[in-house]
Amino acid sequence: MISVVWLALGRLPAFGGDRRSIRAGQSRRHRGSRVIERTLRRKRTFLVLLALAAMFVLAACAGPDRLGIDSVVDSDLPQNALDPAGPAARSIDNLWWLVFWIATVIFVVVEAALIFVVFRFRRRGGTDEPVKQVHGSTRLEIVWTIIPAVILAAIAVPTIATLFDLRAEPAPSENALQVEVTGHQWWWEFYYPEYDVTTANELHIPAGRPVYLTMTSADVIHSFWVPQLNGKRDLVPGRTTNLTLEADEPGVFFGQCAEFCGLAHADMRHRVFAETEADFEAWASAQAEPATLPAEGPAAAGWETFQISCASCHTVDGTSAEGDFAPNLTHFASRTTFGGATFANTEAHLREWLRDPIDLKPMRPDYNDLEAGRVLGMPNLGLTEVEIDGLIAFLDTLE
Amino acid sequence: MATVNPPMEAAQSDAPSRTGVWTWLTTTDHKKIGLLYGGSAIVFFVVGGIEALLIRVQLATPNGEFLSADAYNQMFTMHATTMVFLVVMPAAAAFTNYFLPLLIGARDVAFPRLNAFSYWVFLFGGLFLTSSFFLGGAPDGGWFGYAPLSSQLNEVVRMDYWALGLQIVGLASLLASVNFITTMFTMRAPGMTLMRMPVFAWMALVVNFLLLFSLPIITVGLIQVFLDRNLGTLFFDAANGGDPILWQHLFWLFGHPEVYILILPAMGIVSEVLPTFSRKPLFGRSFVIFSGIAIGFMGFGVWAHHMFTAGLGPVAEAAFALTTMFIAVPTGVKIFNWLGTVWGGSVRLATPMLFSLGFIAMFVIGGLSGVTHSVAPADWQQHDTYYVVAHFHYVLFGGAVLGLMAGMYYWWPKITGKLLDERLGKIHFWLILAGFNLTFAPMHILGLNGMPRRTYRYPEGLGFEFWNFLATLGSFLIAVSMLVLFWNMFRTWRRGEVAGPDPWDGRTLEWTISSPPPEHNFDRIPVVEHEDDFWYRKYSTADDGTSVAIDPPPDMEVEPEANIHLPSPSFYPVLTGSGMFVTLMGLVYVPWGLVAVGVGALITMWGLFGWSMEPITREDH
Fold first, then answer.
1. Which of A11, A92, A201, A235 could link A217 by a cystine bridge, Cβ 3.0 to 4.6 Å?
2. Cα distances (Å, whole numbers) of residue B208 to A146, B204, B454
3. CA-CA distance, B26 to B12, in Å (whole number)?
């Protein structure tokens, strides 16, 4: 790609012209500043062109936007840790700004001192001045050992207090919603034991009530992170870890896996939908319903294909599809995204996905070993366009 | 190992003829080995830099399609592995090799053949790691290789390259640490008490103790990963009673001291450069030394701050938050003492000084963002985001790399006899400073805005576009600045201004001898009477405490010693190292590679046998 930039630049008239004028400027220096001025102006033009060329070439490297975040939220920074929307994130945010301002003061003082000593004691006129050979001062050493220690002790107190506060399990009186989270390469599984609901990648929670996550991993280490609601916590195979989420108000919050988990780590995203208590209850009871199979039409044909091609990995509650290696699709059509919350749930994206999943999201289904319980993504099922039409119609019925 | 040479004149007249490839392959001269380390570090810096640029091009735009996810994961794994193990560590080893004996008034290191062996093992390890790109793909599980991601998937050899490559590069450092520690404890010039040792030597001493104690830990961990991958030993397999968290403890118990292994040599260099260009002794010298030792000790007690999100439990997190906060105290002491050194001096803003001041300015930023990580709840947000990437680049690039570059500009005239061009040096400095900040300052914001590390692409609409584009522009500015440096090196190599023995009016022993130094370093081993001994040979102290040049300048010529002990060249270190390389290559491709393992083991045995049987006296001098 770099060579492309150079090839493009070689053809720009400004580049050649610039070099010529430098040469002219060198051989006829006596002609004065006009030549230099023109050279400088051309250099500036050249730099602007260079930046434009770089932007143009780099823009050519960008792929299409398949997630459409802008259509879901207003915020310019929907994954911003500095924009807390819940009590845990807010107390971290308060702590962060305290430390930030202390650090900023120290930064300004030290950098100002550095700049001051350099300018104050800079050698002038190119001659060395006699310098007093000072070896140190124990008093100063004590001062600049104690002051930082005191500042750090001051930071330590709220740090430890916040730490224990945020690590505490919600009290029974808070009536926390329990959710079990399992990390998979590269998607999330959410199970609501109170409702016996399993869903994927999109977590629905009631606003204003703590949600206590009990998390583990099916394969490698992942990390669950919704910056606006709380810090992140790892999901470790063979262990359970916990995290409390709480949103002040209804809203959509973005997050993604924060511990490198292999090939498609970047495409292991999740969304949290905080809803009013009534909306949440409605959602949960709808999700608890089994699927109703379509009786006729392309959707019914799709179900036939599903049984053959999909059911060994995917579950649709209330049907014979009981595979548990991949996301539960019982209410797939109610989700806004798929593929690890990486693609908006549209017909066009589904079609691309069903034609060749690896073309959309990097996965290693060639390493799948269902008997050993190892799944590294969805293989290309070699579906015909008719089968794909049917599957899309069938998935659309899974409200 | 040491031999009795013919008189020094013979050694000198012999020197020009020994410049061929064979000389370099068999050299046991600490200066030549230092140059080999330095040259290799520069080559690997270019490799790691290209990896970085590819990463930045991929991230310049949302939904980048320049690299595949697979290629991207290899790039960030190898960028870190290369920069840590094949650039900063060997660059520090280059300075330690070349200058430690000169700084303490010795003719070589304690074990010259072991020294050569360390270098060859390092080089073969580096080539082994890099060759993986052409042999099925480079390691792609992160430089930290978290199990079970690194220990699963035994179909792919990539993380075998990583486990074995780190192992062998670590062995090189471990052997070097034994060598340097012994050198410092046994080979100092008469009168060079420990407290009179230059601060660079002191920091090297701390670094080598850190290597000695931390490398065995990672060695154990890497063997476990390798065995899990190849023999199914289940150390890190949770389903069978293993524990992935164990790997994290082992890795970071090595990995955090490693951070100080990377930064302390740069701190040592800065502690040499600031006094020279301020014409004052290092302020609070003993405090700088002891804070370095304190950092070394405390560095072993903070590792779990890399694991604040692993779910260790609030008590462990609180304990490690506190230890991490307090390691900032000795670090602060160093910074204040450096400011105190410049205070009241006669500051000459030559390139080495600019890089040292740049080191302080950037390291302060990295240190302060480090304190924000020690605030564990804040770290739950920052961990594994670009904020952390920004932090450690301010420490390792703004800190270690700028410090090492200060050392390069400072000692280049001693090594080559020619001064680097000051104007180009200053252009290099300002370009790299601007490029560095343009690249890494935006990453603080990206991380806090929610961008995780190690993600090969990011969608539109999260607000990551602008800062990423800026960072990519900055990274190319860094690349341009490096071209200026290489041009400067190339141009002054032959046509540069002749430096003379003491171009900076230096304070330490290396400036008493010619540039480049003779093979035997010192015509006569100096007798040391002061810290900064050379300064006090040139200057007396007036009543008001200022330095007054001794007039006429003292004659530095000394009567050469009649018999000078120099180590003999040896072919066996490189032979043994190459045998280990063949063994490693075989181990990656078990089972059929076992043939290569056997061949490599035989070569290694041959090398070790020949090494131990080598006659002590060099016959054909």
1. A235
2. 29, 6, 31
3. 18
**Cβ separation of B329 and A148 shorter than 8 Å?**
yes
Q: How confident is the model at residue A37 (pLDDT cuts 50, 70, 90)?
A: low
Domain boundaries, chain A: 2-59, 297-397
Cβ of B346 within 8 Å of Cβ of A155? The answer is no
- Secondary element (H or E) of residue A234: strand A233-235
Tokens of B241: 């009673």
Max intra-chain CA distance, chain A = 99
Q: Using alpha carbons only, give the angle B417, B420, B424 rounded to the nearest 5 degrees.
A: 170
Has the ipTM of the complex gone over 0.90?
A: yes
Q: In this complex, is the C-beta atom of A167 within 8 Å of any C-beta atom belonging to chain B?
A: yes
**What is the CATH number that goes with domain A297-397?**
2.60.40.420
Q: What is the per-residue pLDDT for A26?
A: 42
- DSSP strands (E only) in A302-348: 337-338, 343-344
**C-alpha B1, offset from chain centre:** 27
Q: How far apart are CA B91 and CA A316, in angstroms?
A: 59
Chain center to CA of A216: 20
- From A95, A122, A136, residue closest to B378, measured CB to CB: A95
Sequence-distant (6+) residues with CB within 8 A of A61 are A1, B57, B58, B60, B61, B64, B65, B66
- Please report which residue ranges of B60-111 form alpha helices under DSSP H: 69-81, 89-104
- Rounded alpha-carbon distances, angstroms, from residue A237 to A215, A368, A377, B247, B404: 9, 18, 18, 13, 41
Partners of A245 in the β-ladder: A211
Instruction: Give the gap in angstroms from C-alpha B24 to the nearest C-alpha of chain A.
Output: 36
Own/partner contacts of B154-157, CB < 8 Å, gap of 24 or more, are B154/B229, B154/B230, B154/B232, B155/A367, B157/B132, B157/B588, B157/B589
Correct CATH for B2-11+26-570 of 1.20.210.10, 1.10.1200.10, 1.10.10.60, 1.10.340.30: 1.20.210.10
| Torsion of the alpha carbons at B120, B122, B127 and B128, rounded to the nearest 10 | 110
Q: Residues A43, B42: contact at Cβ < 8 Å?
A: no
How would DSSP label each residue in B284-306? Answer: THHHHHHHHHHHHHHGGG-GGGG
Handedness of CA A193, A194, A198, A200 (dihedral sign): negative
Q: Compute and round to an integer the Cα radius of gyration of chain B.
A: 24
Q: Which of A329, A320, A370 is nearest to A353 (CA)?
A: A329
Query: Please, which residues have CB within 8 angstroms of residue B220's CB and are 6 or more apart in sequence?
Result: B250
Per DSSP (E only), the strands in A236-281 are: 241-245, 251-256, 269-275
Of the candidates B461, B262, B230, B532, which has an alpha carbon nearest to the alpha carbon of residue A71? B461
Residue to test with chain A: of B243, B309, B343, B389, most A Cβ within 10 A = B309
Chain B 119-148, residues with CB within 8 Å of chain A CB atoms: 140-142, 146, 148
Tell me the β-bridge partners of A212. A178, A244
Euclidean distance between CA atoms B388 and B370, whole angstroms = 9
What tokens appear for B397 in the block? 């690039």
Chain A residues touching residue B318 (CB < 8 angstroms) = 160, 163-164
- Residue given tokens 């063979």 in the structure block: A238
The mean pLDDT values, 10 residues at a time, for chain B of 621 residues are: 40 51 93 97 97 96 94 96 97 97 95 96 97 91 93 79 95 97 96 96 97 97 94 91 96 96 97 96 96 96 96 95 95 96 95 98 97 97 98 97 98 96 97 98 97 96 95 96 96 89 95 94 92 92 88 77 85 96 92 93 96 72 41
CB contact under 8 A, A59 and B328: no
Q: Which of B178, B26, B179 shows the shortest CA–CA distance to B576?
A: B26
Distance between CA atoms of residues B376 and B61, nearest Å:
32
Listed by start position, the domains of chain B span 2-11+26-570, 575-621
